[in-house]
Amino acid sequence: MQILVDADSCPRAAREMVHRFSARLDIKCIFAANRPIPGLPETAVMELCPSGEGAADNRIVELAGPEDLVLTRDLPLAERLVDLSITVLDDRGRVFTKENIRSLRSIRDFTVSLAENGLEYERIPSYGRKEINDLANSLDRELSRLMKSVSLPQDRASGSV
Hints:
The protein is built from five helices and six strands; from the N terminus they run βαββαβαββαα. It has a six-stranded mixed sheet with strand order 3-2-1-4-5-6, with helices on both faces. The chain starts with a strand and ends with a helix. Helices cover 48% and strands 14% of the residues. It has helices spanning 12-25, 55-63, 75-83, 101-116, 129-158, and strands at 2-6, 28-33, 45-48, 69-71, 87-89, 95-96. By secondary structure, it is α/β, with parallel strands linked by helices. Helix 1 (12-25) links the parallel strand 1 and strand 2 (28-33). Helix 1 (12-25) runs parallel beside helix 5 and helix 3 (75-83) runs antiparallel to helix 4. The protein has one domain: Rossmann fold, CATH 3.40.50.
């Protein structure tokens, strides 16, 4: 089990929160990006990917498995991961699922097309205390769920439930 972070666009407060969770729970955490990310703790694992469109995304998909958690705000990446049954959160604590990813991706694609045609659209408000608290709650819930599912086969193998 590990946590992978799409670090290119992840707010510093969210990166710090994820790193604290991973250290406290002794879960490997990898920050993937096309460039060095300033402000990462010295103990953080940085996966520096080649420059180029989608290189960091492709590396995250390559490294992630069904027992892992990925943090990204990139909806095309989230969709790829959800299709592989990987748990995905955004930096505001929203869990991406097979039930919600298609509609979220459609909305994203529509707003991108508006911007490409010169039309303004309302952007997501700033990142603050509420968003970091929502992320903490989602991390706690999803990591607990993943840790139970990872340890369940060992419990069954030993005969205890």
